[in-house]
Amino acid sequence: MMKLVYKLQAEEYRYDFPVSYLPGPVKASIQEQVLPECSLYHNKVQFPSSGGLGLNLALNPFEYYMFYFAISLITQKNSPVTHHVSPSNSAYFILVDTYLKCFLPTEGSVLPPPSSNPGGAIPSPTPRSPAVPFSSYGMHHTSLLKRHIAHQPSVNADPASQEIWRSETLLQIFVEMWLHHYSLEMYQKMQSPHVKLEVLHYRLSISSKHHGSPAQSSYQALHAYQESFKPTEEHVLVVRLLVKHLHAFSNSLKPEPLSPSAHSHTASPLEEFKRVVIPRFVQEKLYIFLQHCFGHWPLDASFRAVLEMWLSYLQPWRYAPEKPPQSTEPLPRSVSDKWAAFIQENLLMYTKLFVGFLNRALRTDLVSPKNALMVFRVAKVFAQPNLAEMILKGEQLFLEPELVIPHRQHRLFMSPTLGGSFLSSRSPAVTDASFKVKSHVYSLEGQDFQYKQMFGAEVRNLVLKLAQLICQAQQTAKSISDHSAETMASQSFFSWFRFTPSEVNGSYTGNDLDEIGQDSIKKTDEYLEKALEYLCQIFKLSEAQLTQMMMKCGTAQDENGKKQLPDCIASENGLILTPLGRYQIINGLRRFELQYQGDTELQPIRSYENAALVRLLFRLSSLLNHRFADQMEMLCSREDFVGRLCRYHLTNPQLAQKIRYSPVVRDRTSHNWGPRISLRFLASYRTLISLLMIYFLASWFHIGPVGCTFIILTGYFLYAVIMTFFFEGWKPHEH
């Protein structure tokens, strides 16, 4: 395919790519005749001729192919999925990896494109119409693309130029199509509380169908530069692949020569490209993309893909060429001081997104193993030796008062994307690290941004809340594990013939640990324990604070080890859940001890019962109860042992009392309050299996069906007599 692309590249072919396919910010700016600052679109916008349908970009074959290749990642989510394929095994994922290795090599240089006509020339793209003026909404930089091929060079031009324009074009297309769905200006406006209030007012006006609201026009003006974008998990995984390769590409930069004059003569365009590839092309758009994902991604385990992409960007040292020394003990690798500049120039990636993750973690069920794993992963990354200290140093540089350096006041905090070409003569190195940090923060969040310190009191309180939730989740997981063990141990032979209390009540803790098993419960406890340990290392939590939290968690259980009721307040209508109580129920921290208090014959059919047998046996027992009601009443009225036996096994006075005075039951005349026969236990699958086993053993000893039935009835009668004599206090519905 690439050979065909290069073959067409040597011809005078231009292809129209609809502007409507571009991301929202670019599409809106071009439609408003504002030239995007990205040099990828310069000299390519084509206005429709008379009768045309819309704006187009005039692209050469390489650009045309790469645009459609990049957009297929976003558009293919609407196609029907016939079977599940791992993204890392898909052809698209492998092609992206191949193109990145080819055009952004970590070793050597980019291979020159094959050409069937070396003497031919690649003509320049058709210039845009000069009749319609374009203005730039930003101070766009003169990139390599514009410097070397503002008008396409010939095939036999400088190989370095060919090398750079293909590499930069590929990267710009990937970043624009995958990450640029919200502009920086739009993001900064949407952070304003006033704008958030207007958006909320507009949504409320839409829901109440008041379209004449004054907030509508304001919101539509803000909405002009953005689109409703919902990235898929595969999209995020491909972006993570891009981030990991860009770290490896940037870290393959050769060490700078000691002499500046030598540098100006020996540094190749590809080496200069490696130097600025992340701050100039990726940082801003990736930050806004991550902010959008952190704020809009569902609170489920699929967030793991976004989390790993974020953690991959935060750890460029993982993709450095040097290897850590081999040691017998797997000690955590300390982060070198040479990464301090990267951490300071990406401070918001570490601090603000960490606060965003804390807010997500506080709203998730930490008893779930997948959620516990995500908390463990983040805590483990930030607990790497020397990383927290460098982040704290970056915050201190940002909070350094401006009055310390008076000559800095006339400076303008500009975006990393602003300025001249990185091939032009470089500006003198800025030695003021504080200015670099402030420039990074203000360029992304605006001059009015109120920074929230990661190691400040407010975030520290959030960490303490998370630590308390981790302790509560550990208690909950332990109680679920103990309850499961007790349930397994309490299974007896006679429980196969009757309803156990847990089955009748149908209580459920609302967590997925019951289906996962004891091994995953232990794994969850390990994740939470290590996460708590890492958080204590990062934020220097003392033993006294941990002890206090454990005591608070311990008060959630009473003297008998049973859970207390969820937090609620008493009212004239009964107990009302508070917001804390709702949170406790949702996360499985506390629950009401619900028990089925109605007629056991009328309870819903359970999963361990045969539905047809339940209905058939209910009709049979109803027929018997109606037919022999008088006889059973006479037997229960006797004062001898037979009467005692019948009263114990055929009546349930507690249930009759509850239903008689229940405000829910309206027709009380339809209920049979007297003695009755219940055959529903025969519909249980384990009862049927037990009977089949007994018949199979009887046939082994040559006992016929009649004799086997006699043995079963005799044994059950003896069991009923024993229960009457020695366990009269047991609840009748348990037998």
From TrEMBL:
The keyword Membrane applies. One of its GO terms (molecular function) is sphingomyelin phosphodiesterase D activity. This is Sphingomyelin phosphodiesterase 4. It comes from the Eukaryota. The gene is SMPD4. One of its GO terms (cellular component) is membrane. It holds the Pfam family mit_SMPDase. It comes from Ficedula albicollis (Collared flycatcher). It is a single-pass membrane protein. The chain crosses the membrane at residues 685-703, 709-727. One of its GO terms (biological process) is ceramide biosynthetic process. It is found in: Membrane. InterPro entries: Sphingomy_SMPD4. Keywords: Membrane, Transmembrane, Transmembrane helix.
